Amino acid sequence: MTRRTLARALPLTPAVVLLLLFLAGPIAYCAYIAFTDLQLTGQAESSFVGLENFRTAFGDEGFRNAVWLTLVFTVVSSLVGQNTLGLALASLMQRASKPVRTLTGGIVITAWVLPEVVAGFLLYAFFRREGTLNAVLDALHLPRQNWLFTLPILAVSFANVWRGTAFSMLVYSAALQEIPREVTEAAQVDGAGGWRRLWHITLPMIRRSIGTNLMLNTLQTLSVFGLIWVMTRGGPGDRSQTLPLFMYEQAFQNSMIGYGTAVALLLLLVGALFSVLYLRLLRTEV
Amino acid sequence: MARTRVTRPASRRVSPRISRRISRRAAADVCLLVVAAAFCLPLAWVVLSSVDPRADLTVKAPDGLTLGNFEAILTADVTFRPLLNSLLLCGGGTALAVVCAVLAAYPLSRFQSRLNRPFLLTILFATGLPITAVMVPVYALFVQVDLIDTPQGTVLFFAASQLPFAIWLMKNFMDGVPKELEEAAWTDGASTWQSLLRIVLPLMGPGVAVVTVFSFVTMWGNFFVPFMLLLTPDRMPASVSINEFFGNRGMVAYGQLAAFSVVYSTPVILLYVLIARRLGGGFALGGAVKG
Predict the structure, then answer these.
(1) To 5 degrees, how large is the angle CA B94–CA B99–CA B102?
(2) Which residues on adjacent β-strands are paired with residue A36?
């Protein structure tokens, strides 16, 4: 009996070994060095410092700034931007004519498929002082701005909306197609207007997709590094330095691996929390 | 619409309703086109600049067409070596992840066990973890075990980071292959391996293709992993080497940067089109992600 079970579990081995060595291992190691004063160079051995790194973090102006910016970045780009725009596009696409639907879907998905760094460059060019956005604003006789300097966190948030909306659009398109036509038609016959149908029928019927989408968007947004790195390097100063960039700067530019890892551990915990919420959400669905 | 016409022959009632439907469609079209235009501007910049001899940061009609930008970058140092590095790293990582995922998905999909559910929940939990956050400890670990700055180390980490999602998708696709076919093969004396290779895999070709393409595209675009784990410039994939255009060369050659972006992005766009078509529209991934 046990022998058969073992034989059956055998194909799992390569995957489990890889996951343990390269994913679980680093996470465990992360939890360990977050409590040490490990440094990048010069120091032969590190010593256990308890909660010192976390105490430093919560007293650190730079850390609090990064937490705040991560919050702004996540709320603006994921919760509000990608989610709302994705839903709007999906529901407009249900009504639009086929060529327009295909064209829009193609363009939005292209932005999603592009490599992260390329997306960063494109949006960098778009938001630069001599870039496309200001040219458009000029043409409309609106005031121009040096976006990457005056509102860097907003610029990178919009960049993330540009890059990530396709995912929400795909999730919501699939969800909207599952709403039976009779339901919306019945509401229409009863005289419910567009907004009321959205609020009382569509949104309640796709609420699980909304939950799933919000979780996945948030998790993805929490780990954005390349896009911001390419566009602003976290600057000017630290005005677009979200937690992943702060973590990188502490660990490598300031050579404090222990401190950087403590920040990483906090990020990981937030991610784990969202991941557990996501599991709960799926569990009710299955 | 035909029914409306039959039940309400009075033409004055029909036309407003139809015209309202048409005007709603037109309104939706206009809204979508505005969004599409906004999304298109950055894309237009990269395409136009790549053939513009005097490219800058604004979208504009090129000052004449040139292939000079492409000629300038299509050299071993600038383009071919980084792309080859990308291909080897991402190809290796994808192959490893897909093979491991197929093997792991088989028992999860085919055999009942008390451990399946906790295992799958752990896998699903791992898909949500921000990989960015583990990169600092991975770096520290790789330094200690001498995997830092090696292609194999990067391949192994790529594979591991993609594995949770690959296993999850693969298991769902495998569940779609009816078990009866295999049971018939088992009674004919086929081993587990034979039924996996000869029966299950051929039937889930599209599923394997989706996992393969999705893993490859994700790795191809990944910046942070090779940025952290590789140090020697000659070993860098395109996602990292593209920064050379920017930081280190002082003046930025925007036309060349755009041309490189086009060359580097084209493969993944083509791959995406390939699977999107095969699965009838781009909605399959969204559906698969939903579980």
Answers:
(1) 120
(2) A48
Q: Domain ranges in chain B?
A: 2-66, 73-289
pLDDT for the residue numbered A215: 86
Is B74 in a helix, a strand, or coil? coil
A66-70: list long-range contacts, CB under 8 Å, 24+ apart: A66/A238, A66/A241, A66/A242, A66/A243, A66/A245, A66/A246, A66/A263, A67/A243, A69/A153, A69/A239, A69/A240, A69/A241, A69/A242, A70/A222, A70/A242, A70/A243
CA pseudo-torsion sign A30, A35, A38, A43: negative
Half-sphere exposure of B210 toward its Cβ, with a 13 Å CA cutoff?
28
Per residue in B157-215, pLDDT (tens digit) is 999 999 999 999 899 888 888 888 888 888 888 787 888 888 888 888 888 988 999 89
Q: Do A122 and B36 touch (CB under 8 A)?
A: no
Q: What's the length of chain A?
A: 286
Which own/partner contact pairs does A5-10 have at CB distance under 8 Å and 24+ positions apart? A5/B113, A8/B107, A8/B111, A8/B113, A8/B192, A9/B107, A9/B113
**Homologous superfamily in CATH for domain A74-237:** MetI-like (1.10.3720.10)
Query: In this complex, which of B126, B137, B240 lies closest to A261 when CB atoms are compared?
Result: B137
- Provide the residue ranges of all domains of chain A, joining segments of one domain with +: 74-237
Helices (H), A74-206: 83-95, 98-113, 116-127, 132-139, 147-150, 152-177, 181-189, 194-197, 203-205
Residue A236: both structure tokens together: 């000017």
B10 three-state secondary structure = coil
* Contact check, Cβ <8 Å, B104/A109: no
- CATH class, domain B73-289, is mainly alpha
Using CA atoms, how far apart are residues B45 and A133, in angstroms rounded to an integer? 11
Polymer length of chain B: 291
Given an 8 Å threshold on Cβ–Cβ distance, is B140 in contact with A105? no
Q: What is the DSSP string of B161-205?
A: HHHHHHHHHHHHHHHTS-HHHHHHHHHTT--HHHIIIIIIHHHTH
Number of Cβ atoms within 10 Å of the Cβ of B152: 10
Q: B167-182 burial string, b = 16+ CB within 10 Å, else e?
A: bbbbbebbeebeeeeb
Q: Please answer yes or no on whether A265 and B133 come within 8 Å at the CB atom.
A: yes
Q: Which residues of A touch B113 (CB under 8 A)?
A: 5, 8-9
Q: Mean pLDDT, to the nearest integer, of A13-22?
A: 92
Angle between helices B81-110 and B151-175 (to 10 degrees): 40
pLDDT, tens digit, 9 for 90 and up, residues A171-186: 898 888 888 888 878 8
Contact assessment for residue A226 and residue B137, using Cβ atoms and an 8 Å cutoff: no
For residue B136, give the amino acid letter.
Answer: V
pLDDT exceeds 90 at position B288: no
Q: A268 and B133: CB-CB below 8 Å?
A: yes
What's the distance, Cα to Cα, between the start and end of chain A in Å? Answer: 30
Question: Are the C-beta atoms of residues B30 and A97 closer than 8 Å to each other?
Answer: no
State the best of A36, A91, A98, A118 to mutate against chain B, taking most chain B CBs within 10 Å.
A118
